[in-house]
Specification:
Layout: H1 7-25, E1 36-40, E2 53-56, E3 61-65, H2 72-87, H3 90-99, H4 106-129
Parallel strand pairs: 1-3
Antiparallel strand pairs: 2-3
Helix pairs in contact: 1-2, 1-4, 2-4
């Protein structure tokens, strides 16, 4: 059984993960406002899957769904995934959605690759800071 991690600890990890992303993945210069990261006590589900997080381009905000992220690794990998979407073209993202399923969507695949590639490194960096 997985012990529930305090939301404040998740927030700290999410903020540190976003800083790590900014330093290591860069920033989106097309955005006029600074990226915001929020961890919310909520649960989000679609017909196919539970959402760990979302990137809302209109707010330039990453939301992490506390109840769906059971581990700190979930939090960090979700920030990396959503940060990747922040870096991508929103217009192109929605164009791809017209012709691709989620599993074959090029931007979703890139975000998943970044999760796999960077989560461990990012977690190690955060653990040294906290």
């Amino acid at each position: 059984m997985i012990k529930n991690i305090d939301i404040e600890i998740k927030r700290q990890y999410a903020i540190h993960a976003a800083r790590w992303c900014k330093k290591n993945l860069g920033v989106n210069r097309r955005r006029k406002h600074q990226l915001k990261v929020s961890v919310r006590i909520t649960f989000k589900k679609s017909d196919q899957r539970d959402f760990h997080g979302s990137y809302y381009s209109n707010e330039n905000r990453i939301i992490i769904y506390d109840l769906n992220c059971k581990t700190l690794e979930d939090v960090v990998s979700t920030v990396i995934h959503e940060y990747t979407h922040y870096l991508q073209s929103t217009k192109k993202y929605w164009e791809y959605f017209q012709t691709h399923y989620y599993s074959t969507h090029p931007y979703e695949r890139q975000a998943k690759r970044n999760e796999i590639k960077y989560t461990s490194e990012c977690l190690k960096t955060i653990k040294k800071l906290i």
